[in-house]
Amino acid sequence: MAKKNSFISGLAEAALWLAVAISIPIAVIGSLVYPNVILEQGLSHRIFYFHVPVAWVALYGPILASFFSVIFLISKKSLWDDLAFTSNQISFLFAIGVLFSGPIWAFSAWGVPWDRTDARLQSFFILCLSLVSYFVFRFLILDLKKKAIISSYLSILCALSSVLTWGAIRWIENPGNHPGSVLGKGGMDPDMKITFWFSIFAFHLLFLILFLLTYRTQKILSIRDRIRTEKG
Q1: I need a labelling partner for 37 at 20 to 30 A (CA). Which of 75, 175, 227, 228 fits?
Q2: In sequence order, which ranges of the chain are alpha helices (DSSP H)?
């Protein structure tokens, strides 16, 4: 039975790897050649198909981490702390992608790489600072139990920051230059919609495979830390 489950798990992982290997190149190349561009922005508009999917994953990550953190606070099982840490790591990786791609798009659309009056930009920057704080505290606290507990509460705060970032262009009357929700009224042309949703699909698959790899590494490191603590 164990061998059968292992075979199925390996087969599913191989399928995930194959899906990522196929979907990411299609998403990137497709966004460069398939959809029409917005005339006011020119070719730089195509970064939209990278920037927005990556931003979505960056916002989902802390929320997923907070879910794992709440379970840890209830169960006190290190598994959930490892999962929360993994989710926040991937979220931060995608957040860096947003911080690099956003100014490129903003410069072509607004003429400035960073608009300090834009609510979404400022709230996303606060989210990034929250994640950095999470990692700093996690690094500084040596006691494994205290580290996990404090990290869980910080993870919940990161999730709140993520929700505020999501709502910045929805709840604030004058949020700034940042475009409204892509799911709002009016929508997109069919070619843009197909490219956008396929990119969303591809980058979420990438999130899953990175999550799997990072969790495995974190699990090994956690076992090493617990062994060191027991010996010390």
Answers
A1: 175
A2: 2-33, 48-75, 78-110, 119-140, 144-171, 190-231
